[in-house]
Specification:
The protein is mainly α. The chain is 75% helix and 2% strand. The chain has 2 domains: 188 residues, no CATH class; 81 residues, no CATH class.
Amino acid sequence: MAEKEMSFWDHLDELRGVLLKSAVVILVLMMGAFFLKEPVFNIIFAPLDSNFVLYRVFDKFLALLGWGKVPDFDVQVINIKMTAQFFTHVKVSFYVALIVGMPFLFYELWTFVRPALYEKEKKAIKGSFGFAGILFYLGVLVGYYLVLPLTVRFLGTYQVSPDVPNSIDLSSYTGMFTSLIIIMGIVFEMPILAALLSKIGVISKEMLKEYRRYAVVILLTLAAIITPSGDPFTLMVVAIPLYLLYEVSILVTKSKAEQEKLEDDDDID
C-alpha cells in the first residue's frame, strides 16, 4: 500500500522542498558552467568545423570506398546585437546546468511521487527512474554527435548562390544547439515510458505493433516540431532515431500474456 496519507498542504510542502533543492543545484551548476566559458563554448562550436569527429569518420569511410573525402568547410558565427553575447552566455550556462543536473532532477521527481504509490507501482517505476538518466544522456550524445553536425553540415553550407555567403547569427546557432540537444535527450525517454506503461497495464507489445503505421505519422510530426529548420534532410535525420526508439519500445514492452502472468503472481502474493 501507499505510504501514510498526506494532506494537500503536506504535498505542497514536499513540492516546495523539491523545487527549492532543484533550483539550488541548477544555480550552482549554472555558475560553474558560466565560469567555464571557454571549454563550454569550445564544445558548442566544435560541430561548426570540418575537423569534428563525425566528419573525420565520414572521411575515413569514404577513403575506404575510394570516394575521396568530405569537402572541408568552416561555418562562421557572427553577433549583431550589443547584448547578445552576454545573454547568450547566461542562457547557455542555464541549459548546460539543466543537462548536467538531469539525474538529480529525476531523483527529486522520484522522491516526490514515491509516497503516493503502492508497492507494485514502486517496483515498476523505481528502476525506470534510475535508467531514465542513462537514456537522457544517450539522447544528448546522439543529438550532439549525429543529428546536430549533420544539420549544421547541410544548412550551414547550403547556398542559393555563391554570391550569398553564410554567416550564422550567434543566438540562432546556440538556440538551435540547446533546443535540439535537450529535446533529443527527452525523446530518448520513449522506451522508459513505454516499459513503465506496459508494467502497469496501460499498453502492450501487441498494441504498439498494431499501431505502428500510425506511430510513423506521429513520429514524423514530432520530428517536424523538433527540427529547427523544417527542411526535409534534417527532418529525416531526426525522424530515423525516433522510429528506432519506437522499435526499441516494442522490444521492452510486455505482451498481454506476460502482463496477465504478473497479475496472477500478484494475486497469489
